[in-house]
Every structure is written in C-alpha cells, then in structure tokens.
Amino acid sequence: MVKQIDLITLLERIEAETGCQCEVYQGITDEDALYIPVEDLGAVIGMLREDFGCYHLSGITAQQRESQPGEIELIYHFWHGKGLSLLLRLPADDPRVASLIATIPGADFYEREAAEMYGVTFTGREETPRLLLPDDWDQGPPFIRREESDG
Amino acid sequence: MDKISIPIGPHHPLLKEPLSMRIDIAGERVLGGTLRLGYVHRGIEKMATQRTYVQDVHLIERICGICSHVHTTTFCLAVEKLLGIEVPPRGQYIRAMMCELERVHSHLLWLGILAKHVGLETVFMHAWHDRELALDIMEGVSGGRVSHAANQIGGVRFDLSPEQVAMIKENVEKLKAQVSGVLDVIENEPALRARTQGVAPVSADLIRDYCVVGPVARASGIDVDLRRDDPWPPYDQLDVNVITRPEGDAWARTLIRALETRESLRLCEILLSQMPVGPVTVRAPRKVPEGEVVTRSEAPRGEVLYYLRSDGSDKPARLKVRTPTLAVLSLLPEQLSKIHVADIPVVLAGIDLCIACADR
Amino acid sequence: MKAGIELKMLKNLINKTYRWAQKNSIWVLHYNTGGCNGCDIEILDLLTPRYDIERLGIIAKASPRHADVLLCTGPVTLQAKEGLWQIYAQMPSPKWVVAVGSCSTTGAVFYGSDMVLGGVDHILPVDIYIPGCPVRPEGIIEGLLKLRERIIHGETD
C-alpha cells in the first residue's frame, strides 16, 4: 500500500520547489484536485514520482467546458492510495503541452487519444499516430465544439 | 538474420476481436511489434452525452460483453455520488455479488482461451462447461446470461428470493470443486508449465513505468487491488485477500487468475450469508445537479476509471471511460520483444485482451 | 426424349445429394465487426459441451477459403468494414451470410453514432437475421437450422 499524500503538504512542496502557483480545485466530489500551470507539468510530475512515490497515472481526460469554450482542459488522474487529479487549461486555438512519455511511457495511449479527439499537440514526442479513429477519418477532432455546427 | 514484418489481423484465429498487429521477427525470435486499435471504436463517449443518464446505463453495459456489470456499476456509482443518494445495503450486496460472479465467469472464459492456445483443448471444454454454472446463476436471478441489466441508478433491478439464494449456494459449491481441479492442473501439469513458465517475464519497475493494472501487475509483485484500496460498500466490510506473485511470467499470470477465481467464490459465499434484508433500490431523480466526479472499480482485468461531469440537465456533459485493457496494452510491444514466435499466443492470452473495452 | 428426361432426373438427384451434403456440413467463419463481444462469446459457447454444435455438422473454421457461412456480429465500425468486405470476397461460392445479434441487424444501441454503419446489410447481402442482445445460443442454433432449410431448397443470394 502506497503512503497517501496530504494535499496541503503537496501544495506547499510544489510551491517551494518549483515556485509555480497552484490552486486547489474543489469541483470534483471526494477527490483531491489541483490546477497547475501548463509549463510546470513536467516538474510537478517529477516531484510526485521522486519525492512522494506517486507513479500510477490512471488516465488523461480532455474536455471542453461549455462555460469556457475558448479553453481545452486536460485532467491527469493519478492514484497513490487515493486519487489525485491535476488540471491544466490550454487555449483552444493552439493547445500545446509537453509530452510525458519520457518519464511515464504508459501515457502514450492516453496522449494519442487526447490528440486525435481534441486536437491537442503534445510537444517533445515525434508524432501522435492515430489510436482509435478510422484511417480515413477526415472530419477533424470529433469532440471539438465548432461555432457553426453543434459538435 | 533479416528482419521480417508479419501483419496479423484484423481477422485472425487467435482472438475473437478485430485487432491489427505488425510483428517484427528475425528467425525464431520476435523483435517487437506495433498495434493498431480502433476496429471496435463505436464512439461511446460521444454517444453518452447525447442520451439521458437512464439510457446511458444500457449503452455503457454494451461497452464490453464480458465485464458489462462492473462498467454499469461504476457509472451508477458516479451518478449516485452526484445525486447524493445512497443505495440500500441489500442492493449493495447484490451488486457486489454480481461483480464477483462476473469475475468468476471472466476468468474461466480466459482460462479456456489460454488452454486452447497452449494446446490443452480438454481444459478449454471443461472450463467453459463450468462457466455455464456461473452463467446459470446470473440467468436465474436477472434473466440474462451475458448482459443482465442488473443495475439501475439508485440500486439494482431485482431482488433475490429464498429459492434463488439456495440455487446460488448450490452452484457456488459445484464451482468450487471444479476450480480446485483447474488449480491442480495449473500447478502440476507439465505441459502447461513448460509453455508458460519463464515466458515474457515483466519486472515491477516496468509495470510502474507503463502504469499497468490488474492481474498482470499483481503477477509481478505490485500489491494493488481497488476492492481493498478504494472500496465502495459493501467491500469496505469484506476482507479481500489480494494475491500477488513475484515471478512476473505467463505462468504467474495464469496462477493468479485461478486463485482469484477461488477467492471470488469465497467472497460470494460471504456476501450471501451476510446479506441484509430491506429494499434494493431508491428512487433517483432524472436531472443530475452540476458537478464532477471520478470513480474507480476493480474489473476482472484491472482498474476501471470513470470521469463524469454534469451540467444540471438529464444528459451528461462529459463522460470519460478508461478501461484496464488500454493500460495493459501499452506493455505489449515491450513484452513481445523478449519471446520466440511460438510464444506469441501465450503472451497475448496472458494479458487477457478485451479490445471492445479498449476501443470503446 | 426418354434419355433427355433421364438426364434431367439424374441431374436433379445429384443436386439434391449435393445440397443434402451441404446442409449437413456447414463450415462457419466468425467475424466480429466491432461488437461488444457478447454475441461472440455466445457463438464460442456453441462449441462447448452444453450446446455442442458439432453434432449438427457445423465447425468453426479460421480461413475464409474453407468456410460456407459468414457469421457476423457487431455494428460494422468504419475501420472494420474493409476487412469484412475482403473476407466475404475471399469466400468461395456458394456462400451465405448470417447477421448474429441486434447490432449486425440494425445497429441496436449504437444506432446513430458517426463511427458505425449500423448493420451488416449496408455492405453485404444477408440471408438470416438473428436478433438478440446478446443472442442466446439456442437462438443461434435456431437461426442456423433455418439456414439449413434455405440451403436444402437451393436458395442463395
């Protein structure tokens, strides 16, 4: 059993080590969640693995909230004895975030799915080949809400 | 030797689902491989946002036919958390009992497929014949062998009568005897050991890096089982034995699933003997208040994660499903780089693929 | 003229024997075009001792070149439809197609999704439709027995 991380301790450590400003997100019922800036993702993940022993990435959720259509949100779900979710906000017209596959090879499939379903670009990896969509799919990311049609 | 790439699929005699692989071999050694998923992609996540929560329970059940109950259970748990309602204890016990029976039927199904690939055709016939006992139980209580529609938001759809409870106990007894025979074969049969022992061993560090879940992770010594670590009631009142093995090879993966079957039958008996009386469901409103929730469950193949966001209407705003096979498949190219050509079916069977789950 | 009639009677006898042999040894090929596996494991259940479809002369084969009947499950996803067509094209005549399950009949739960066609009869000519979600093994046997009736009467698409 992995030792559970206290959220306030984690927040203080992140701010002390990386200097980035994170805020606790209360919106997910019964789950610890943090908003972190996009550029600090690699540093936070490295700290979680080395200092807190939190290795297991359960999945990456990509979504576009109706209240903020100009943003794509990525949620990284971790498990360390209890759940921890890291939220990132990316601009919808050019969503870019650093890829994690150098540190967590298991994130490959999740990144590829977010890339093809929402058009997110993962920097630092060669390409994101298609995972689930058919080879002849040419209608763009199916989940993106476009202004002229109803997504 | 020169490298040759062999394409396998999408239709192939190894598996019953379409999956395309390109395997690189040099002589008898396999160098690696790549996968192409997507043949079973039906767009379930998008469809879920176009249907109401009640319709979604039936859609989610058909993500996968083998582990259908645990998918609907996790979805119903997520919606019930957002609604703030609690399932009555008897309903919780029936849900857990169906989950354990599903684990039994899934592991026996998998065992038959592995035995067929290894060459023990008789074990395939025996395992699937015994599996019919588990399906008889599920049919006797719910009306369906494979797709039971047992869950609804707020509880379960049916109650158990005393005759049904007696029937379940009788079938569980018979299954226990059969599973002991199967365990005997796995531990002592030289043909099975020769074909699976030492094949594609996976270290615990590799499991952690690739974020693998389920029996494949437990076969390499990782001690994680969400029935014990993140229990939904009534698992918090049960004492679940988590079985791990240190070897990490195909034989360990085989043995773990057989031992888990025996453990699931034991949990079924405890659930039946301790089942409380009372109603089995509560009424759930159609519109779900705004909110987000993450729920996790232990399916027969590992950790299932559901992320659900609601916007106050009667349809979900976003549903994200992460199935265990997707986590395990990322390890496949790595596993394939260590084996001979003849071991490919054993490795594929050992990770217990369910492409319908992975593709959604 | 008598020789002409006798020749015709001989031809009829040969055809009848040929169709009798065909109906008693149907070799099936099972292809999953993107279903949830519920129907597929019920089809595999037919090979097991409780339902034992081999007593009817039906064997499951792996190669399209050996098969008479294509058992399709699944709502035909866009990615899998090319494979379905190629398998059908490789099967030698006479051949029959059986759509097993509600998904391959109409698309069932997945009807309306952008990623599925919604039924095998969008691409292939189907002889027998077996509805169910999933189909019970007895239902599949009933469908295959109806197919035998079609074969013995010499109907084919």
Strand count, sense and barrel status of the largest sheet of chain B are: 3 strands, antiparallel
**CATH architectural group of chain B:** Orthogonal Bundle
Overall structural class of chain B, as computed from helix and strand content, comes to alpha+beta
Q: Fraction of residues of chain B in helices?
A: 40-55%
Q: Figure out the total of helices of chain A.
A: 3
The unreliable regions of chain B are none
Query: Cα-atom Rg of chain B, whole angstroms?
Result: 20 Å
- State the name of the first-level CATH class of the domain at 7-93 in chain A: Alpha Beta
The tally of beta strands of chain B, per DSSP, is 8
Number of strands of chain A: 8
Note the beta-strand portion of chain A.
Answer: 25-35%
Q: Give, in order, the helices and strands of chain B.
A: EEEHHHHHEEHHHHHHEEEHHHH
Return the string of H and E elements of chain A: HEEEHEEEEHE
Fraction of residues of chain A in helices?
10-25%
Cα distance spanning the termini of chain A: 43 Å
Q: What is the percentage of strand-forming residues of chain B? A: 5-15%
Mean pLDDT of chain A: 81
| Widest sheet, order of strands of chain A | 1-3-6-5-4
In words, what does this structure look like?
The complex is a heterotrimer of chains A (151), B (360) and C (157). Chain A is 23% helix and 26% strand. Chain A has helices at 7-18, 41-52, 108-118; strands spanning 23-24, 28-29, 32-35, 56-63, 71-79, 83-91, 96-98, 121-123. In chain A, the strands form two sheets. Chain A has a five-stranded mixed β-sheet. In chain A, strands 7-8 form a two-stranded parallel sheet. In chain A, strand 7, helix 3 (108-118) and strand 8 (121-123) form a beta-alpha-beta unit. Chain A starts with 6 loop residues before the first helix and ends in a 28-residue tail after the last strand. In chain B, helix 2 runs antiparallel to helix 3 (68-83), helix 5 runs antiparallel to helix 6 and helix 7 (190-196) crosses helix 11. Chain B has a single domain, classed as Cytochrome-c3 Hydrogenase, chain B (Orthogonal Bundle), CATH 1.10.645.10. Chain B has helices at residues 44-48, 53-61, 68-83, 89-118, 121-142, 162-188, 190-196, 204-210, 215-218, 226-229, 250-273, 324-329, 332-336, 344-350, 355-359; strands at residues 4-8, 20-26, 29-36, 151-152, 155-156, 291-299, 302-310, 316-322. The two termini of chain B are 39 Å apart. Chain C has one domain (2-152): Rossmann fold. In chain C, helix 1 (2-24) runs antiparallel to helix 5 (137-152). The radius of gyration of chain C is 17 Å and the shape is globular. The model of chain C has no long low-confidence stretch (mean pLDDT 87). The interface between A and B is large, with 36 and 38 residues. Strand 2 of chain A pairs parallel with strand 6 of chain B, so a sheet runs across the interface.
